[in-house]
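Re: weekly structure request thread

Next one in the queue (563 aa):
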Amino acid sequence: MKIGVAIDIGTSGIRAQKIDLDSGEIQKTVITLRNPIPGANVMDHLDFAITYGLDLAQGLHVNAVKHIIETLGVKPEELERMAICGNPIQLSIFQGIPIDDLAYAGERKKEKLNIKDEDRSARIVDCSEINGLDVYPNAKLVVPPAIRHEVGADALALIIKSGFLDTKDTAIATDYGTNAEMALIHEGTIYTGSAAAGPALEGQQIKYGKLASPFVISDVEFEGNAIRNYVLDAEMNTVKGALTDPKSGDVLDEGMQMWRCAAPSKLPNGQDETTTCEGTIEATGITGTGVIAIIEAGMKNGVIQLPKINTPDHILHLQDKIKFFEKDVESAGLAMGAIRAGHLALCNAAGIEVSDVKRAYMSGAAGTYMDAVKAHKVGMVPFDVDEVIQIGNTSLIVAREILLSEDRLWELQEIASKIVSNHVMFATDQAFKDAYIQEISYWTEGMPFKMLKKFLKKKKLPKIDLPDKDTRVNRLVEKDIPILGDEGLQVLERVGTYLTMKVDCPECEKCIKVCPNDAITIDSEGVVMIRSDLCDGANCKRCINACPSDKFKWENLKVLEED
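Done, posted below.
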């Protein structure tokens, strides 16, 4: 049997599948709950690679992917093809392609620094040509094209798999995640952008948050003044969870249900084979879709009045002692505000009103599991759309397609070269900046929505409003990864990557004490170990600030190659 691996390298995590190259059948799926590069978003990853070296960042990515391939049960000599998909920053780092052209906005700045745009066309290369992948002596690496150097393969996957190019309506497509790629089509022209929304939409930077994975709360509804929890089972299906008192967490109804069990190591109740189980699932956290549902349901119920939670302790209590805090409201609100500001900025670039957008496509894990109606009501979908279409994980789908067909790869290259695209750099776009500033005030300072609209009008920006009609929802897939394979799903809590260096102050441990994520350990010989997937990188740097600059130098960090 010929074996290939399809990989979606996302900003918040990696998803990979082992595939029989002869039959095209998916055999096993592995997902990680984090990206191996320190940081909370794609800009942090870019900063890490620029500041501390592309080689270091690439080593983290490659080491993580090797760990994933091993977990898929693929031996190095068995692998024949590997296909990757993702945004330009992630794919460039993985391949060791310079990223300076992605780090600086504005042609004048690039010209001053003598930075040239890198070629990110489709390609097939021997894995041995990629630093660290020479362990796969028989394998080829397949990489899909970017539309432009800054509009990556993930955006192309979103555009192609949504049917976006065939629509006659003015439409918008969004991959909901940490780095929210979005595209607007109007009169045959595509306008693209990427909002660094942060990881809240994928369950991260939320106190009890997790990426979409088994046994997390993915949805909630108020039943009277109580909260009904909905949880993902072992095969990522949504099942009815407990009914709880949001003020105390007391369980009012256990929420008995039937659910599918998976591999023995993944069962909360210890079954030794795949079977149908009965009972309650113990929830382990909240995924991004659950976060959105909590915000929408809480605002509708009145228990959330931005930016406050109206309970005695200002906390919402969910099942299994999982809690939702006012800080979580703020983190989620900033992400939602970035999405709405991005949509507005694209409409502004196209010279249209937000109300002209009549169709919206949602992709990615968050875009699959979230309730599209709730997302519409909180502003994550343009307010006047007639239809929302949920299409699943387009990036992983495209990775599998090009893994199985070289013709498909070159077809995508031809499509990419023909797309007329105007990319809006949100970091420098005045419309986005003006809109996002007002979104911050709305979500974190309690500014009334009427005032938000007033400020946008004053800036002569496209108008937004609250939805006054129900939108049709067309959900094409039930899960973002519809087929897991006969060997099932395995979730890696740890990506398997460490940064290490030697220090001469092992007894101090200030760096350990200030780390908010418990990512650092030091042994008796002064060897520092940093779990890169837990580290917040440029978003934190508390360890660097707490230690003498001559003792704790990130420039000395190396990737630990694990046996």
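The two ends are 26 Å apart (CA to CA). The first helix runs from residue 42 to 52.
Next request, please.
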